[in-house]
């Protein structure tokens, strides 16, 4: 039978599903270095199954009949096939291995994929009407999922992952079993469109009880989160029937016929799988809030690095040194004389002995460490754990050698060696100060000459000269201080800025850029993830 | 014949053991913890609901709990045994949500009090209201037990209709398990469609482990297949080592189905007779009771060590978590000491200040910079330790307790606390310097602030601040300088230790609050061995 099977046209997925699958493949590729294999295994499996299903017949729809032991799966299977293919019985559990039944040729590949051996493949009772109605259907009778026989459950779990649609058979006694709802229906709630739930054995229920039970079953399914296909909305089909009396079988056959004729089940199933994978992967990809390096975070980092190299202190020191030099240059000679005397008189309280600097570890290591930690924390805040870890690692990797670089830079960009530059007006100020001193001296000598009697007595002019000198000296000094404060501040600010910018540049190149590129990578992955979920990514 | 000669010592030992079990807690989310919690609850329920009351009052009526899967027809069976509708039966699942206890009117006093099942609220339902129950309290809040009396039941026997053991409603499931534990006789009801289900077999195995008196009822068997199904079920039981368990078969009758009719008395007669015999024949009664009671006592031998093992695992996990904190802080402390020795505080801004001191920088500014730098160093150590702890704890399943890892963003407050500590150190250091200067008999006293700044520099600057030490010696003399440095150094060590220890305590506080101790393990085992001795 398989020999003459024509090669059926393979399945084709439509555009959106194809792009979602591509995105998922891309996503898995991009994430492989960041996530552990276990997290991605399910996504890989979905991709593999999608590819495998795609190579096989698109003309066929594989539908599995699943249910608890004793619910009448095999009975239903036989009723649909029209011949007693699957063994039924009172002995529980009855069916131990899956059996497949194909309504048309060309499904051999699909059944191979389910791992059902040739001896368990059947054909239905051929009738022209049947043939036309259910053409393309491949029905699989599964063992139970709830008996004490564990290998049955394994069969069920394996095949349920591969088929295109599932008919869940429940009966009035077992329709509320926890194992059915908690283990199967709830996790597969996203697959509602390819799910049928049929309440079998309604012949055991008197009159209205059947409707009551069916309503209760609908309520339970609703609680499981399964969308019900009522009023033309997509969702699970729920119906009641009796495989024993044949009541409702015709209806199921009709619904199945439509379902199979649409040939959309396989794609819908894959789509639901992709969706389920996306939901499962959500915590690894979705961020809780806007993540990234904000401008404030960058500035704070630069500030912390500037602190680490002591930019502020260096600027202030430079400013003060400039001002000190200016004051020394333009101060009155008497003041200088007094200072020199003071230094001579009490060496211990004065200046410390000249210190020699060793320029190693100028940068505060702890501050750099803290700055890197803070910026990594800020950049990774709100990211899912694996990506946050990647960002932190990028920051830490970048910060290796940062301290040494900053050390070197502090020496290079720090205070210039030697004395601060001397502005052009200093000689003029020195000259003015000197002339004031000369006025004092001339006035003094003049007066002295008068006292001694060498010169003619004239009190007015020398006193005037002396007063001008005495008042003018501090006056020039004061004016110089005033004039010096602006340039001094500029000089200090320059020194600070130079150091700050150098440190910020170093930090940007070594830490911020790697962090930013890691964030970019995350954003790319997130974009792929959004494509997987089917949400259109807004441009930019 | 086994008799229930219960000595008061045994009861004392048992209630001591009960208290130990009640006190056991498993707060850390280890893999075995949910199971241990369930085991503990189950054991506690069995002790409270069954073992203690039974040993205390052996003459109390036998309690037969009817358990089984949803839809197995438990309520119908109870109704049929009693002879009237005491428990609701119906087609919708799960039917029985409130457990119903049925007993002879004269036995009523045994169950109306809190002797057994103390955490179920009793509801007394007058007969005429049993059908439409408007007075039934809302089951969502409190767990209730409805008590019915029927004089058709023999004296000395009570039946309890339990909810489904495999209910979709998890609360029902837990309640069913608890009720089964309270039984003298476990009546397991299954059906022709269900006898191979995994869930009831789990219950059967539990009954076997505890050596409880067990009966199985194969309910709703279509009469065509009675013999075959019955044989199959018997074979399965025999395979599970339960071949000796009494087995009753109830055929599926139109009444049994839907609508809650009563089965004809003949259908349940064998079971009824057997139960009545257990209750009324003193020898059988003793045997039944003693078997379940001693079975439960024996089962303690394996269940208590299991609990103790779980308690030990909890303690081990807590120790691991604590060790991670201790280890992280210890290693950070060592690193911090090393950095202090190397003069890491005198770097960056502080170093710049020190280089321009005293020409372009005042002593106050130098002190400010040093203090700030020291605070940064301490904060860095604390955050590094925290980071390392987070890293270790991330691999630790036990760290998933809420409040342990997702701390409040306490980093700022850590910064604040460290800043406070460091500033306090500076103040005390300045006081020391003032004292030292005041004691100096010198015409021109040096500025105390400058002395403090030099001491701080010498203490924090390591090798690179050697000149600060020299300057200090020049100002207040070699002897005074040495004394001041010693005092300041001790002070520094003090404050740093205090700050780090404080942070470590803060980190450990939520773990300590969980109260995981090594004692429960030993206490559980000790209680068990006392009990063994008293038997």
UniProtKB/TrEMBL annotation, chain A:
Pfam families: MMR_HSR1. Gene3D superfamilies: P-loop containing nucleotide triphosphate hydrolases. InterPro entries: GTP-bd (IPR006073), GTPase_Era-like (IPR005662), P-loop_NTPase (IPR027417). One of its GO terms (biological process) is ribosomal small subunit assembly. Keywords: ATP-binding, Nucleotide-binding. Residues 63-178 form the G domain. One of its GO terms (molecular function) is ribosomal small subunit binding. Transmembrane segments: none annotated. GO terms for cellular component: cytosol. CDD domains: YfjP (cd11383). PANTHER family: GTPASE ERA, GTPASE ERA, MITOCHONDRIAL. This is ATP-binding protein. It comes from Streptomyces apricus.
TrEMBL record, chain B:
Signal peptide: none annotated. It comes from the Bacteria. One of its GO terms (cellular component) is cytosol. One of its GO terms (molecular function) is rRNA binding. Keywords: ATP-binding, Nucleotide-binding. PANTHER family: GTPASE ERA (PTHR42698), GTPASE ERA, MITOCHONDRIAL (PTHR42698:SF1). This is ATP-binding protein. It comes from Streptomyces apricus. The lineage of its organism: Bacteria, Bacillati, Actinomycetota, Actinomycetes, Kitasatosporales.
